Amino acid sequence: MQVVRTIEALRSSSEALRRRFGSLALVPTMGALHDGHRALVKTAVDSGAGVVASIFVNPLQFNPNEDLSRYPRDEAGDLAALRASGCHLVWLPDVATMYPAEGATTITVAGPAEQWEGTARPGHFRGVATVCAKLFGQVRADRAYFGEKDWQQLQVVRRMVADLHLPLEIVAVPTVREADGLAMSSRNRFLNNGDRVIAPRLHAILNATATSFSCGQSVDAALADARRDLTEAGFSLDYLALVDGLTMAALSRMAPGARLIIAARLGAVRLIDNIAV
């Protein structure tokens, strides 16, 4: 596995990979890797492509009231995990490479970016779209792999790629969960012991709400019950909604492709999750 830190080294190494494998697969990450990231890399490796993973904690997607410095970093551990997962090339740019002082371009996506995380974290998706466009241009991959846990992010990236006619495919990989149902996240390590016991209730309540829909309960009533159950369990809710899985528009009744999405705080940790319904 190669590790590169300059655009020039990335270009030469990635093109060598393309000649060797015929195509390139990109797994963009912010590091602090867990089994969810490993699943992305494994899916990319299994596709037969040369696999490039990027590690870059993107400052543009953090709001001023979010602690960028607190985001977990473990370069040595991440490199070991990528090597063990079969990754071929790791791209480790610095902030000056990604955002040079003379830079003047960012990407703003409307549509699926406008609500939910877009409201709770203003400017977040501008940062996501901009850094992904840069990574796609730098690596020139044929496919890029994203986890379904960040469902809205997945739709934002897909919309950007379609709108800008970027020549790559976005591949979704199912959410990887702990045995008790908690969606894997780099931020889970910040849960204290008591909150870690409570955290799986988030996914359990999502599943119970989906069951209520299937049993004929109205969307509004089922969501109201879920909000009450979440509050009683100790969560502070940012949002809980039934949405169209592509546009992220709120739904008042069940429809094909619907998704149940949630963001809630437990102690100092913000958790997000979603399920198909």
Question: Please, could you describe this protein's structure?
Answer:
- With 277 residues, the chain is an alpha/beta fold.
- The mean pLDDT is 97.
- Strands 1-4-3-2-5-6 form a 6-stranded parallel sheet, with helices on both faces. Strands 7-8-9 form a 3-stranded antiparallel sheet, with helices on one face.
- The radius of gyration is 19 Å and the shape is globular.
- The protein has helices at residues 7-21, 35-46, 75-85, 95-98, 117-120, 124-139, 151-163, 193-198, 201-214, 219-233, and strands spanning 2-4, 24-29, 50-55, 89-91, 143-147, 169-173, 236-244, 258-266, 269-276.
The low-confidence runs, each spanning 5 or more residues with pLDDT under 50, are: none
Structural class: alpha/beta
**CATH architectural grouping of the largest domain:** 3-Layer(aba) Sandwich
Count of beta strands? 9
Order of helices and strands: EHEHEHEHHHEHEHHHEEE
Q: What's the CATH topology label of the largest domain?
A: Rossmann fold
Question: Roughly what fraction of the amino acids lie in strands?
Answer: 15-25%
How many distinct helices?
A: 10
For the largest sheet, list the strands in their spatial order: 1-4-3-2-5-6
Count of all domains: 2
Rg calc: 19 Å
Largest sheet: 6 strands, parallel
CA(first)-CA(last) distance: 40 Å
Helix content: 25-40%
Corresponding CATH superfamily of the largest domain = HUPs
Shape label: globular
State the CATH class of the largest domain.
Answer: Alpha Beta
